[in-house]
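Before a colleague's protein record goes any further, I have to sign it off. I want your independent view on whether this chain really folds as the tokens say. The record follows directly below this note.
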Amino acid sequence: MIRTKEARVFHIPDLNWVELHADHCPIPLYDKKLVEDDRTGMIINVSKYPKGYNTAWHTHTCSHGMLVLEGRLRTHLGIVEKGDFVWFPEGTKMEHGATAEEDCTVLFITNAPFDIRYLTDGEIPG
């Protein structure tokens, strides 16, 4: 993750994927860390959900958005297509990930430090 006060160009193909593991899913996901703002905690990453990856129902205390760069993003709102942007206000109960058929790569942006809280069975919409 880059913390810089200078203008910078990122050549995304040259950046390494960082493998991440979540207890709720046996499939890892991947991030290319781009920017973290020291003042606000805002982050920007490129994230890849391998086909079949799905986050469990969760919330964040930050708002965040995803611009679909490749594939299709499956969300509780429906399928988000390549070139579309989805925004989740803080506190939204959500789930998202890749479809079963293809990987999904997104530009992931938060407005504050990132956190995640998985919902209990009694909190899951439904």
About this structure: The mean pLDDT is 93. The radius of gyration is 14 Å.
